[in-house]
Amino acid sequence: MAPPPRRGLGLLFAVLAGLFAGIALAALAARQLVIAVAALALAAWLVTMARGAFRR
């Protein structure tokens, strides 16, 4: 069996984290604090997942 594509997953998680960070910035610009906080939390979670995928 082939090993799982960790770099691909890491890249996917990093791109998604960047998108959620962009959503957080747009929400802050629109003064939608709840959406900004939620998007930032998701971005932070995805960054930790990306970091873990790149380390293994």
In short:
The protein is mainly α. The protein has helices at about 5-30, 35-55. Helix content is about 85%, strand content about 0%.
Principal-axes shape call: elongated
Largest sheet: none
SSE order in H/E notation? HH
Rounded Rg: 14 Å
According to DSSP, the number of beta strands is: 0
Distance between the termini: 17 Å
Strand content: under 5%
List keywords for this structure.
mainly alpha, 56 residues, single chain
Description:
- This protein is mainly alpha-helical.
- The protein has a domain at 21-56.
- It has helices spanning 6-29, 33-55.
- α1 (6-29) packs antiparallel against α2 (33-55).
- The longest helix is centred in the N-terminal third of the chain and has 24 residues, at 6-29.
Layout: helices, strands, pairs:
Blueprint (H helix, E strand, L loop, with lengths): L5 H24 L3 H23 L1
